[in-house]
Amino acid sequence: LINTIGVPFTYENKQYALFIRPDIRLLFSEVHTILGGLMLTMTVLSLLGMLLFAKALIRPITQLTEATHQLAYEKFDTLLEIDRADEIGQLAVSFNVMTEKLQENDRIRKEFISNVSHDFQSPLLNIQGYVDLLKNPLLTDKERQEYTTIIELETKRMSTLTKQLLLLTSLDQSTRLLKRESYRLDEQLKETVRKYRWQLEEANVQLS
């Protein structure tokens, strides 16, 4: 210690030392300096610990915010990799479950649009094909009547598809309606051949 005098002495064959400080105020000054240094060190360490804790807390929230922005642009393949046992971890698990459901709904939506487009395209092609056949001046009245009937049936088919589409859009997703009907396969095959007869005639294909 600064400003301290040490005097050795012997007592009962044992060595001792006696330290004498002329000014006791210097002792308190050094103690204050040591305590101040300890407090400053503890304050710095506390701030560093708080910063690290805040960073660890904010990082998953930042990831969640970024993933939410990705969902806004219909990027449903965004999953959070947050392995925590607290509320933030539970929120990440719920977010991933929601993302997977949105991804599945998006797949079903695209598949539905593709199927609807195909279902509408088929009668339109048939109508266009038989309209072209009706332009032939050599057709008999029976053939004209048959082609006109097919066009009318295809028009009704499109109307039915439109009504079914409107019904589907008005139903709740959790609702499932089942309506069973009996069909004769032979009649279905005959109807299909009759609808696409114009394509067979254009290709010079004869069915027996």
From TrEMBL:
Span of domain Histidine kinase: 115-208
Swiss-Prot/TrEMBL keywords: ATP-binding, Cell membrane, Kinase, Membrane, Nucleotide-binding, Phosphoprotein, Transferase, Transmembrane, Transmembrane helix, Two-component regulatory system
InterPro entries: HAMP_dom (IPR003660), His_kinase_dom (IPR005467), HisK_dim/P_dom (IPR003661), HisK_dim/P_sf (IPR036097), HssS/ArlS-like (IPR050398)
Pfam families: HAMP, HisKA
Reactions catalysed according to its record: ATP + protein L-histidine = ADP + protein N-phospho-L-histidine
Spans through the membrane: 34-54
GO cellular component: plasma membrane
EC supergroup of this enzyme: transferase
Subcellular location: Cell membrane; Membrane
Predominant cellular place of this UniProt entry's protein: membrane
One GO MF term: ATP binding
EC number: 2.7.13.3
Signal peptide: none
Organism domain of life: Bacteria
CDD domains (UniProt xref): HAMP (cd06225), HisKA (cd00082)
Residue span(s) of domain HAMP: 55-107
Membrane topology term: Multi-pass membrane protein
Name of the protein this chain belongs to: histidine kinase
Organism the protein comes from: Lysinibacillus xylanilyticus
